[in-house]
Amino acid sequence: MAERLDVSAERRSPLEATYQSLGARFTGVRGARLPERFSDTADECRAVRSAAGVIDRSDRVHLTASGPDAKAFLHRMLSNDVARLAAGQGCYATLLNPQGHMLADLYALQMDDHLLLETDVSAAARAREWLERYTIADDVTVEDRGAQMAALGVEGPQATKLLAAAGAGALPGAELDHAWVKLGEAAALVLRVGETGEEGYRLIFVVEYAQNIWDALVAARAAVAWKPVGHAAWNILRTEAGLPWYGADMDERTLPPEAALEARAISYTKGCYVGQEIIERIRSRGHVNRRLAGFHVSGPLPAAGAKLVRGGQEVGVLTTAVESPTLGRAIALGYLRREHLAAGTRLEVEGGGGAEVVELPFYRRAS
Questions:
Q1: What is this structure's pTM?
Q2: Domain hosting residue 359, numbered range
Q3: Last residue of a domain, one of 240, 273, 305
Q4: CATH of the domain at 338
Q5: pLDDT tens digits, residue range 310-344?
Q6: What is the pLDDT of residues 278-319, one digit of tens each?
Q7: Same domain (yes/no): 156, 222
Q8: Burial of 298: CB neighbours in 10 Å, binned 0-12, 13-18, 19+
Q9: Is residue 79 one of the residues assigned to a domain?
């Protein structure tokens, strides 16, 4: 399940010229062209762990669902409880096929008069097509806002201080709560969401405001010495936090419980939705046959897709492997058959080297 790279990707950031002026190197990731790094990747990781970093999230696409039936419709389509959301709240959910496999994972945000959905660029077209397929008798319109909207991630122990210095004012406090703020002369939706194990926010805005928002963050450097962060560092940081990515560690063959998403993405009390029968069957059975796990890796850094072997038998596969500057060692995410999931279990890695099962997340911020 290797992360899909495409250096000719079409989705580009409205800040690309600014990034080029900062010396960024670019890479294509799952259908988006992103800065790979601005400076040393380890230094970018350390900036997020010690102060704050800003990351371009052109790998995220925004859809809107509007109309009188939009909320009830999404409640029947997504795995989490959309019906409970009040304006300014959100939830993390999955969009499943009838076999319970993930077509997308997403954030569903309740706005005043519609819902805003944020999902991975590789899943956006499929998610919209799937939702539209089921809007038979519902008064709901699903639209792709990818060309009109952009996003930045702001994370680190001083992320709140950075946004306050940039003029954001009151910020949402609970996970996935969101509110409109002003940065410079521009409006941005601030979503409280951490994906690195640190304080985190997503700034969502129309593309015309991108430079204004960037300039407001630059002006706040006097208060917080943040760094721009490339995709390479972001991938390391989210791996340290034990966060699986759609398109890298999850795809249309993955069941949510395999990726350990039950607590975050599934409501077992909300009632029927597409794929619910399979998810409920898994719960009643008590387990899935394989599950996401973390690994300390020795030897050469394995490629995504490397098989895990124990006693001469293939028992799992690695999906992401990175060198962690925070931990000073190689770490990986992958899937392992349930009978081998105990922490401390030692495995061989296809192509050489070894792996030891460890508890997730690899990194937890000190309280």
A1: 0.95
A2: 289-367
A3: 240
A4: 2.40.30.110
A5: 999 999 999 999 999 999 999 999 999 999 999 99
A6: 999 999 988 899 999 999 999 999 999 999 999 999 999 999
A7: yes
A8: middle
A9: no
